[in-house]
Specification:
alpha/beta, Alpha/beta knot, seven-stranded parallel β-sheet, 7 helices, globular
């Protein structure tokens, strides 16, 4: 087995990425404090052809050197938009028949491992503040809550890790529908 060189990875150019068919997934970052987390989520969004990233509340927006440090240019490829208020965004997306789900620990949450996304249904996933998580007032508006099962002594994951786990899982399940 031989590690592939970067030139062998068949990466898309920015214009090829923008023209490519996107997944049925949207990411909403609400009140994310760490610019490195924001950049990391952009990079993950690029990897899984995420349709769009919404940045809400205190979440910083590109261009910023600390976002760029972890995004590595993904902010130039992935569509994004800033919205000051997550509540009006949730309602707007739902009017477009987009299901909005929080990624959080909550009673009656659906474990990510048990969730089966419907094909041809667009999902917007909310990832919340590093300390406080997704606001209860936003959860109250959501169509559901996804929870990543955890078995250790800590009861939380870094937001960029949560996004990576969730987007990989849902992308894998949605791509299985296409086969």
């Amino acid at each position: 087995m031989r590690k592939l060189a970067n030139s062998e990875l068949q990466r898309k150019s920015i214009s090829e990425f923008q023209a490519a068919e996107k997944s049925d997934l949207i990411v909403i970052l609400d009140n994310i404090r760490s610019l490195n987390n924001i950049g990391s989520v952009f990079r993950t969004a690029d990897a899984f052809l995420i349709a769009k990233v919404y940045l809400c509340g205190i979440t910083a927006t590109p261009p910023h050197k600390d976002i760029h440090k972890t995004a590595l240019g993904a902010t130039d490829a992935v569509a994004w938009e800033y919205r000051p208020d997550i509540h009006s965004l949730i309602e707007e997306l739902q009017k477009q028949q987009i299901q909005v789900w929080a990624v959080e620990q909550a009673d009656q949450a659906t474990l990510l491992s048990n969730f089966s996304p419907q094909k041809k249904q667009t999902y917007a996933l909310i990832f919340g503040n590093e300390v406080k998580g997704v606001q209860q007032s936003a959860i109250d508006l959501c169509d559901g809550v996804l929870e990543i099962p955890q078995w250790g002594t800590k009861h939380s994951l870094n937001i960029s890790v949560s996004a990576g786990v969730t987007l990989w899982d849902l992308s894998s399940k949605l791509n299985a529908h296409k086969s």
